Amino acid sequence: MKLIGSLTSPYVRKVRIVFLEKKLDVDLELENVWAADTKIANSNPLGKVPCLIPDDGGAIYDSRVIAEYADALSPVSKLIPGDNRERAAVKTWEALADGVMDAGILARLERTWRPAEQQSTAWVDRQMGKIQNSLRQMSENLGGNAWCHGNQMTLADVAVGCAVGYLLFRFPEIKWQAQYPNLDRLYQKLLQRSSFIETEPPAA
Question: Domain GST N-terminal spans what residues (predicted)?
């Protein structure tokens, strides 16, 4: 299998962590979707990463779809519960974490792609508000539990770890670790895992 992605995308990091936790081999092919000569549209017409090319060809895209596909490939380290209600709970955590990454990327693009005189402070503030609301919800839902859902690591924890890690990477001014120490405890625990260590984004 081949995974098309980048080293800084939190969505790519999420699926890379899933493959590592599942002990599945996948070759990472680096692609800069913002480059003029990018070829990502040949595999994903949306022009986004990650994009998985299975051994039988074709393409699977969107990090949530790839993560679910990978989890079903091996019984090792089951990350998505089989029970429908529990599965929905884990996937809701993932949606919340992905939403944090969505908002962060939109805010970052506004600041880095638009000329200063065209940037919308109101738009950035709206995205920052989504991030703050989501962090508060994550912290409330986690409470004093060891994991986001159940008594072992699931895709919920992987997604949350990638989301808060992305904030540290791109938005260090958001002092979420001091504000939500329970989220930080979870993050520090995740950072001990080789899957998180191996996928740490390079220094900006």
Answer: 1-78
